[in-house]
């Protein structure tokens, strides 16, 4: 019985260490993508605006979603209250939807060079607006229960 307790404690400790490492890697990696696009003139192409938006969406998933999911997984229950749970779920859906829509925009941009700087900025704004509407509106209206 004591060996099982030690093994379980070691397993939890390794899980926490792995989660902290991956969480920091996800955030740092996506920050580096944004910094590279911003600072390197060769990367300041219109199509890379979609990559920066994708990096921001993925960074928000790592920072705002995975952090609380890790705590929930470790404890086995939600400790942050019902209202924050709804906000957290909406944020998860919004960032995931924005990530998927950014991937769609990247693939469309790769097929044809139809995108001007203005079109790219408007498209990115629409991606985030649509993602916010898809996530926060149903949850704030209580349609997810």
UniProtKB/TrEMBL annotation:
<comment type="similarity">
    <text>Belongs to the G-protein coupled receptor 1 family.</text>
</comment>
<keyword id="KW-1133">Transmembrane helix</keyword>
<feature type="domain" description="G-protein coupled receptors family 1 profile">
    <location>
        <begin position="29"/>
        <end position="145"/>
    </location>
</feature>
<keyword id="KW-1003">Cell membrane</keyword>
<keyword id="KW-0675">Receptor</keyword>
<feature type="transmembrane region" description="Helical">
    <location>
        <begin position="49"/>
        <end position="71"/>
    </location>
</feature>
<keyword id="KW-0297">G-protein coupled receptor</keyword>
<keyword id="KW-0807">Transducer</keyword>
<dbReference type="Pfam" id="PF00001">
    <property type="entry name" value="7tm_1"/>
</dbReference>
<protein>
    <submittedName>
        <fullName>Dopamine receptor 1</fullName>
    </submittedName>
</protein>
<feature type="transmembrane region" description="Helical">
    <location>
        <begin position="87"/>
        <end position="108"/>
    </location>
</feature>
<feature type="transmembrane region" description="Helical">
    <location>
        <begin position="6"/>
        <end position="37"/>
    </location>
</feature>
<keyword id="KW-0472">Membrane</keyword>
<keyword id="KW-0812">Transmembrane</keyword>
<dbReference type="InterPro" id="IPR017452">
    <property type="entry name" value="GPCR_Rhodpsn_7TM"/>
</dbReference>
<dbReference type="InterPro" id="IPR000276">
    <property type="entry name" value="GPCR_Rhodpsn"/>
</dbReference>
<feature type="transmembrane region" description="Helical">
    <location>
        <begin position="120"/>
        <end position="141"/>
    </location>
</feature>
